[in-house]
Amino acid sequence: MNSSLDSGIDIENASIRGHSKRHFDILEKETGHTLLKKGIWVYFLLLIFEGALRKWIFPEYAAPLLIVRDPVAIWLLYTAWKYNELPFNNYVLGMGAITILSVLTAITIGHGNLVVALYGARILLLHFPLIFLIGHVFDRDDVIQMVKALLVIAIPMFVLIALQFYSPQGALVNRGVGGDVQGGGFSGSLGYFRPPGTFSFTTGNSQFFGFVGVIVIYFWLNPKQISGILLTGATISLIAAIPLSISRTLFFQVCLSLLFAAVSIARKPKYLVRMLLAGIGLVIIVLLLSKASFFSKSIEAFTYRFNDASDTEGGLKNTLTNRILAGFYEPFQYPNFPFFGLGIGMGTNVGAQLLVGHADGFLISEGEWGRVIGEMGAVLGITAIVIRLSICVKLIRASYKKLVKNDLLPWMLLSVTLQAVAQGQWAQPTALGFSVMMGGLSIASLRAGKN
User: How far is CA 220 from CA 14, 217, 225, in A?
Assistant: First the structure.
């Protein structure tokens, strides 16, 4: 009888231990997810304000702050590994293998500088996996929360670039990296400079508002998901930011996002009414802004820059053709690259500084694919490009399936993600950060939220 009783107690204790273990595993998983989500938010905020740290807050530490997100990336990967959340898929494993081989060839038969090789390798070993980690940890609800935050930030960002646009380059708001009193603006037109916002360079500002444009269009088609006041404020900020930026890249990106929206309208005519209402609202906003002298002056500078550059390039058609196609065929115009490339990291500005003492020009190629092939060589470089393209193909298929089911968010995010993942200039830390966030949020938007 005692034996039977003991057996029953043992079974009950085992059941309790099993239940406790399952409960502990669930709590541990939730703890891991919470920590990783907070880490992703830190990565996002550092992407937006990294330039502010380097220009205004800690200018004396401008050089190390260039990679301020690297420790966060390391922590995210370590924490994901610790809680068994690290996404070991074929993309990550394949890119990791290519990177390790590229480091070996760089220090043996390439440029021979280990520091430069490791700096180049961090792009693919630390940041590239975060695309899938964000997609794994975040879901649709998290994406909506983050893009709403993006719209909140867009309003003061617009105010900042307006101040930068109309202030002399020596003004505090225009201080360059390291507190450079010569200014951080880039040549624009009619005596005005392209403002960088909180970013180190003007390209960050264009990428930021390009991302904002996608979200603004999405919420105009789904207005019940956001405050009308916030959406109106973000819309005004976006429209005013286009001429203030003097950036054709931003203009073309917003046009591309509108094209993606048009595809969604073609599939779901109910969006047409919302788009027409949004169009009327945009016209009213533009008419009101045109009454303000600051807006008319920025339009004049932007129009002059647009027309002047188009004339130089042989017209708008050639401009679009060059911007779309040049990145595809230019890499294959360099047949003299060694089979295993010149060495990973050599095509970055930091790599150039370490190897030749300055970063005034590109040691390999300004275009991303040219840099990748030039650094890694034909086989490894093209393989890396194929991996990036295969991610885009998979995102296109998955996003279109969601569009068919009347889920517009992944499709709209795709309008910025495709270029960022396929041809984004990852050698530049800000562009790399936006590519990571856009790619990760696109994957996460495919996952249903809890609400």
Answer: 56, 5, 9
Tokens coding 71? 């420790």
The answer to whether 74 and 306 are in contact (CB under 8 A) is: no
Q: How far apart (Å, rounded) are the C-alpha atoms in residues 335 and 374?
A: 10
CA–CA distances in Å: residue 178 to residues 55, 94, 197, 273: 5, 37, 15, 49
Is 330 exposed, middle or buried (CB count within 10 Å of its CB: 0-12, 13-18, 19+)?
middle
Long-range interactions of 224-230: CB distance < 8 A, separation 24+: 225/144, 226/148, 226/151, 230/148, 230/151, 230/152
Q: What is the pLDDT along the chain (451 residues), one digit of tens a residue?
A: 455 545 544 545 545 455 545 554 556 667 888 999 999 999 999 999 999 999 999 999 999 999 999 999 999 999 999 999 988 899 999 999 999 999 999 999 999 999 999 999 999 999 999 999 999 999 999 999 999 999 999 999 999 999 999 999 889 999 989 888 887 777 777 788 899 999 998 999 999 999 999 999 999 988 889 999 999 999 999 999 999 998 888 999 999 999 999 888 877 777 777 777 777 777 777 777 777 777 888 888 888 887 776 666 555 555 555 555 666 666 666 557 788 899 999 999 999 999 988 777 778 888 899 899 999 999 999 999 999 999 999 999 999 999 999 899 999 999 999 999 999 999 999 999 999 999 999 999 999 866 5
Calculate helix-pair angle for 368-376, 90-108, nearest 10 degrees: 60
Buried b (16+ CB within 10 A) or exposed e, 116-130: bbebbbbbbbbbbbb
Local structure of residue 53 (DSSP, 8 states): I
Residues with Cβ < 8 Å from 142, sequence gap 6 or more?
A: 37, 444, 449
Residues 6 or more apart whose Cβ sits within 8 Å of residue 346:
106, 110, 111, 116, 120, 352, 355, 363, 364, 374, 375
How many whole angstroms separate alpha carbon 359 and alpha carbon 369? 19
List all residues 6 or more positions away from 133 whose beta carbon is below 8 Å from its beta carbon: 36, 40, 76, 77, 80, 85, 86, 87, 440
Q: Phi/psi at 186 (nearest 5 deg)?
A: -115, 145
